[in-house]
Design a protein that fits this description.
Helix content: 40-55%
Mean pLDDT: 86
Distance between the termini: 64 Å
Number of helices: 29
Largest sheet: 4 strands, antiparallel
Oligomer: single chain
Strand order of the largest sheet: 6-5-14-16
Strand content: 15-25%
Structural class: alpha/beta
Shape: elongated
Amino acid sequence: MNETLDPRYDPEGIEAPLYRRWEAAGLFHVPAGDVKRPYVISIPPPNVTGVLHMGHALNHTIQDVLIRWRRMQGCDAVWVPGMDHAGIATQNVVERELAKEGLTRWDLGRERFVERVWAWVEEYGDQILDQQRAIGDSCDWERTRFTLDEGLSRAVREVFVRLYEKGLIYRGSYIINWCPRCQTALSNEEVEHKEVAGKLYQIRYPLAEAGEEGVVVTTTRPETMLGDTGVAVHPEDARYHALVGAELILPLVGRRLPIVADEYVDPEFGSGAVKVTPAHDPNDFEIGERHGLLRVNVMSADASMSDEVPEAYRGLDRFEARERVLEDLETAGFLVGTEPHTHAVGHCYRCDTAVEPWLSEQWFVRMKPLAERGLAAHREGRLRFHPEHFGKKYDHWMENIRDWCISRQLWWGHRIPVWYCEACDAQVVAREDPTECPECGGGLEQDPDVLDTWFSSALWPFSTVGWPEETEDLRALYPTHALVTGPGIIFFWVARMVMMGLEFMGELPFRDVVINGTVRDHLGRRMAKSLGNGIDPLEVVERFGADAMRYTLVNATAMGTNIQLNYQDLESAFAVGRNFGNKIWNAARFALPYLSEEDVAESPLDRALELEDRWILSRFHGVVLEINEALEAFRLHDAASAVYRFGWGEFCDWYLELVKTRLRGDRGEEGRAAATTTLAHALDGWMRLLHPIMPFISETIALRLPGRGEAYTIVSGPWPEPPEEWSDAAAERDMSSLQEIVGHVRNLRAEYGVDPGREVRVMVRGATPELRSALEGAGEGVARLARAAFQEVDGQPPSGPGAHAVLRSGAELFLPLADLVDVERERARLSKELARLEKILASSKARLESRKFLERAPADVVEREREKERSVEERRRRLVEKRRALEGTG
RNA sequence: GGGGCGGUAGCUCAGCUGGCUAGAGCGCUGCGUUCACAUCGCAGAAGUCGGGGGUUCGAAUCCCUCCCGCCCCA
């Protein structure tokens, strides 16, 4: 199929149909039985409520590049897609919908509410999968999973039961982070700390013994004083030695508070005395434990004041209560001081409400034993982060790991598989729902809570492929290879997958963790719905094509750094990718009509290759190595810029330009055939190298090479492996001399404003034999690119006014420009160039004159320095000569 | 308070384990459109590599320190 390409590059017209064809042909699916050389990536499952944003686009493009590259290399590449039920997030979305109808989840009741969420999921849940198709994700859709589907739910339950049986899951009353709006516990990771301008209040607690002044304590949350059950001081704080063991009276409440000595207290901070509220602060909880203090829970689930406080405050919202408490303390004379103070306040990561440290009964996972192996895996180099420094964050977190609160007071999620007997106090933890108490035969009631969403996410790499069943998929697809994700969920997700993988599979779930950058706007702000600064990937796809977006993203991000895109000017934000696509299209449009089936089938080495042919094949050989190396090291941006430089800077700018006339047969049939065969291979190779990053345009062009039909594809490879013979150092050296000549002539022409249409005469003196033969070989093309007629001269230097340049090899160029050259101007130009050379020469000479340099620097470095000095010195000498010659003509 | 990241051209960033005359894209300036591409071509201007100190024959790169941004955890 050798039809011509549309004159206009229209990504919208080619992308969607192509994707449908790929999917229909099953190119992204590998049956488990066929997996011989697996390369597996488990997608970070997007929230089922989600729509694709730029962060996904970046994250997915990186994964797709890796998957497509390995697939082309002949691996059985499987990218397992899916979605996360996203407990709190999804429940919130549906609750908001209900609110529009004036309803709450309580009005519906648990069962009907959960049905309602499922209905929502069924209606909107698949949206994001189609968006993934639009950006080209080559997922194995037949393996799509949802964290709440049957198989994954079984995995969740199995894990819970096993951990429980191993004593790694326990239930207890501890301080957890409570979101009063979502009315659920949160893990430490689900709390975002924000600096808030608050106040520091000093409150005097009088001693129980009458007549004494008492002790001043400091707090940012005065309402919690209602739950104080003690005051702590540092054991070595001389100011309070006498008071330890004495009792204070809690103002407004009247409770007697013991003064205890505890190392935790910082004697430098405030008065050195700390109020202790065991039910509302994790540190106070521990102090309370150590000293046997009471726990008084002064708040209800909605953060209003509970019945444990004096009547006047009951039912007040926590912030109202704060004001009332302050007023009352003031009136009673207990408030001694107030000062401004900024401190970090935890907020719910889903609804942004200030969380309350709250004492409640929750389920926890004991993390230390799990973390040890995860930590060892990284330290021993079996688990690697890219970029490496993210490993430090991982280590730090793992070393300081705390138990994980996994119960959530939500309705949407995996119900905790624990039942309580209504008759005796038995507690049943089971894989299958029990019907009666095994102890006494009494009725059972299941724990009302569900598990943290991240509990099921932690199992993702093996739960998606069948675990706990010993499936073929599980054997073929675990462990996965790379995990690609954002920096924000290393703790939420990555670390937990590592721990669970090691625990249940006995093997890491992946060896390489690739952390992608954060997409920000042009002002450096994170893209967020609330800021309205986001970019819709689908709009970008529609306007510039998925390929343009993918290229722009891959090119712009060194792993783990930020990527800035201007949402107000998509045109320029995606210009790199869009322009590149256009260039590729046009290059192919130009080249294809010259090619025949034979060109595609034959080896270029069997043709009578000319310099530029050998050069482009050699460059291709080089760029393949460069790209392989970059991709292996997850430096996708290096691969992107390499394929760009090769395609645009070498193939288009030089090769196509040089062979234009040969393609039309100006140098005979042999010359034409060598050019077309080389061209076919270079173009095909370029498209293959491009394919992982820009799959649509590369495939479109590749299948239009003669002899290939609609059924042809490069999706399955092969990935280029150019023969060693294509590498040709001599060709590269000679071409680079020619490029240098063209550069000089173009520069001089521009300097002197030579009419672009006018051909100039260029005299070359002192050419090396290599240069001479190169000029003979490719002279015609070079002459065309420089719009110059070359003429070799030797012996005496050319006379008359003109412009000069000296090449690195020492050869000289002279352009006689009698009517154009302004002697003063040429002299100034030469002087400027001379000054530049002098500077380089000076530093080079200084180095070479230093004995230490000669003694200590490696020989090759010294040799290179000598070579540089020689070359610069030679050019300087020639230019000085030229300048002197000008004196005569001025 | 603890941990981490970054400061290279007007902008966004490359530059790996120290060694070619520090690069790219965008932007800017000049010239150019019968000839694949103006979403283009050619040429050009532009950098005390945050400041200071040190190690070294040699530092954008390694060490120390200071300044300025940012992130995570308490």
